[in-house]
Structures are given as C-alpha cells and as structure tokens.
Amino acid sequence: QVQLVESGGGLVQAGGSLRLSCAASGSISRIIFMGWHRQAPGKQRELVARISSGGSTNYGDFVKGRFTISRDYAKNTVLLQMNSLKPEDTAVYYCNVLTSPYGRDYWGQGTQVTVSS
C-alpha cells in the first residue's frame, strides 16, 4: 500500500506559477513512477508529467516546456513546478504512483488548479 498526500494548487492568474507537491508513504520501495495527471470537467484524465525511480521524465504534449517535475528521494516527494499557466490548465490535478511488481497504481485525492484569464 502507498499513501499519497498532495499540497499546493489554488487560484492563479494566467501567466502565473504554482507548485504542486505529493508526499508518498507506505511501500515506497516499490514505486516505479511518481507523477501527476489532471482531469478537467467533461474531459478524460490525462498525463501531465511523471518521473521514474531512475530520474527519467515524461510530459504531456501540452506542457511544452512550461512544467518541470522533480523528485526528492529523501522525502519521498514529487514536485510539479508549473509556470506560464493558461486558463486551459484549469483542472483537478491528481498525484499518481505506479508500483512493482504487479503494476498497481495509487492515486491522491486531487487538488484543484484554477487559472483565471
């Protein structure tokens, strides 16, 4: 079992920045990937960014260099720095981890990000 606690999010104007944080506890040695997905009203959940245990990163196509994901291994935390935010980035952002050996994933409760125009 892995427990995830998210923080960050909120309301920001277009062009602004926010930082999301997600702390993992429990069976953290089994984590393969940590990352963030998002879901806007009426849309499917989509990958924002993820980082592997080895430090490799993947980003959604829409990120286009605006977001940076990083991991604090000592604190078992993943950070998502979001810059140049746009109104279309408005969504609930969910922390997600993928674990071995069976590929089970865990989700945080979600944090709202709202970008005003």
Helical/strand content category? mainly beta
> Considering DSSP H and I runs of 4 or more, what fraction of the residues is helical?
under 10%
Unreliable stretches: none
The radius of gyration is: 14 Å
- Number of extended strands: 11
* Molecular shape: globular
Helix and strand succession? EEEEEEEEEEE
Largest sheet: 7 strands, mixed
What can you tell me about this protein's structure?
- The model has no long low-confidence stretch (mean pLDDT 95).
- Strand 7 and strand 8 form a beta hairpin.
- 0% of the residues lie in helices and 58% in strands.
- The protein is an all-beta fold and 117 residues long.
Short note summarizing the structure:
The protein has 117 residues and is mostly beta strands. The chain is built from no helices and eleven strands.
Summary keywords:
117 residues, mainly beta, 4-stranded antiparallel beta sheet, 58% strand
List the helices and strands and how they pair.
Layout: E1 2-7, E2 10-13, E3 18-26, E4 31-39, E5 46-52, E6 57-59, E7 67-72, E8 77-82, E9 91-99, E10 105-107, E11 111-116
Parallel strand pairs: 2-11
Antiparallel strand pairs: 1-3, 3-8, 4-5, 4-9, 5-6, 7-8, 9-10, 9-11
